[in-house]
Design a protein that fits this description.
By secondary structure, this protein is of the alpha/beta class. The protein contains 15 helices and 10 strands. Helix content is 42%, strand content 15%. The strands form 2 sheets. A 6-stranded mixed β-sheet has the order 1-2-10-7-8-9, with helices on both faces. Strands 5-4-3-6 form a 4-stranded parallel β-sheet. Bound molecules: ligand AN7.
Length: 344
């Protein structure tokens, strides 16, 4: 039978209410891409779980199929979320599929163009907040407490249920959990989901390396960040909703949460692209953390099996590339000009 999406494939492992009415865009089932060159350089067995290949281009679709399926089954008519962009696009797509109204709150001017375009294309009502993601999240929590509008941020437990499926897929593909799992951490829903998923699936437990951006690293600093700033706008979050659980996941797994600079993130984005995997800046954070730690001898990579989660596609944030690269040469449309430019 052809693939029918995550609730169909893993529903028996997901704690979803009986009223859940599956709404799917055939999310999940993403590739675990071997990285032979990086593996050779590091002396380990490295794989990228490429979540950018989900229907709306990020891992958010895993949780959204669950959250929207539950919401529509209980009779919700409108859903809302705060978002740094990917949640907005995903909520908009699944709401559209379910015939629901969707409202998304985003921090003004801080959402990558591919995400904003997606949210608009799928028909969300997009509202820009003169504030941060954290401010937007406080507002959606308040409105969902006072009105029947359904919240689809990862505070919603069904989002976590759906996102556990990535851990299941990794175990199914490898036969067991890897030694290490490295991933970016923003609002901390995903690290919480992976840890819950690995614990539940009982195919072994990885150590977890969670990676924040230095300008938005509340879990490394140990306190909220009032004005988070980073080029990785997806993880520009100063008060993670599931921060406690993220710290627990890191500690219980015998792993840790660290921060990397924007320069490290962007250079790792280029490293990944140079092996054929183009991810958005936030998605390079996991590998960036691994490279930084192993460079200073804090991470024994030799002989280990490591999965790095790349959470969103590079096409989400094209301006990062076009702003930092020289624009392509322009030549007359003739052969002599072409051969000259190629051979010099
Ligand atoms: C590409 O879309 O928070 O730690 O509002 O888009 O589970 O928050 C996005 C987060 C990593 C961090 N990588 O995951 C949102 C939003 C990408 C992301 C994260 C996000 P969490």
């Amino acid at each position: 039978m052809t693939y029918q999406g995550l609730i169909h494939r893993y529903g028996q492992y997901l704690d979803l209410p009986a009223h859940t009415k599956p709404i799917s865009l055939l999310e999940g089932n993403t590739p675990l891409i071997p990285m032979p060159r990086l593996s050779r350089e590091l002396g380990c067995e490295l794989f990228i779980k490429f979540e950018g290949l989900n229907p709306t281009g990020s891992f958010k679709d895993r949780g959204m199929t669950a959250a929207i399926s539950e919401a529509v089954g209980r009779g919700a008519k409108t859903v809302i979320c705060a978002s740094t962009g990917n949640t907005a696009a995903s909520a908009a797509a699944y709401a559209a599929r379910a015939g629901l109204r969707s409202i998304v709150l985003i921090p003004e001017g801080k959402v990558a163009v591919g995400k904003l375009a997606g949210a608009i294309a799928y028909g969300a009502e997009v509202i820009q907040i003169q504030g941060s993601f954290d401010d937007a999240l406080s507002l959606v929590v308040e409105i969902t407490q006072k009105t029947p509008i359904a919240l689809v941020n990862s505070i919603n437990p069904f989002r976590i249920e759906g996102q556990k499926t990535a851990a299941f897929e990794i175990c199914d593909d490898l036969g067991s959990a890897p030694d290490w799992l490295c991933l970016p951490v923003g609002n901390a829903g995903n690290i919480t989901s992976y840890w819950a998923g690995f614990k539940q699936y009982q195919k072994g437990l990885p150590q977890i390396l969670g990676v924040q951006a230095a300008g938005a690293a509340p879990l490394v600093l140990g306190h909220p960040v009032e004005k988070p700033e980073t080029v990785a706008t997806a993880i520009r979050i100063g008060r993670p909703a599931r921060g406690e659980q993220a710290l627990e996941a890191a500690q219980e797994s015998n792993g840790r949460i660290i921060a990397v600079t924007d320069e490290q993130i962007l250079s790792t984005q280029r490293v990944l692209a140079s092996e054929g995997v183009w991810v958005e800046p936030a998605s390079a954070a996991g590998l960036s953390g691994l490279l930084a730690e192993s460079a200073v001898g804090k991470f024994e990579v030799k002989g280990r099996r490591i999965v790095v989660v790349c959470t969103g596609h590079g096409m989400k944030d094209p301006s990062i590339i076009t702003e930092s690269f020289q624009s392509p040469k322009v030549i007359p449309a003739d052969y002599a000009a072409l051969i000259e430019v190629i051979e010099t």
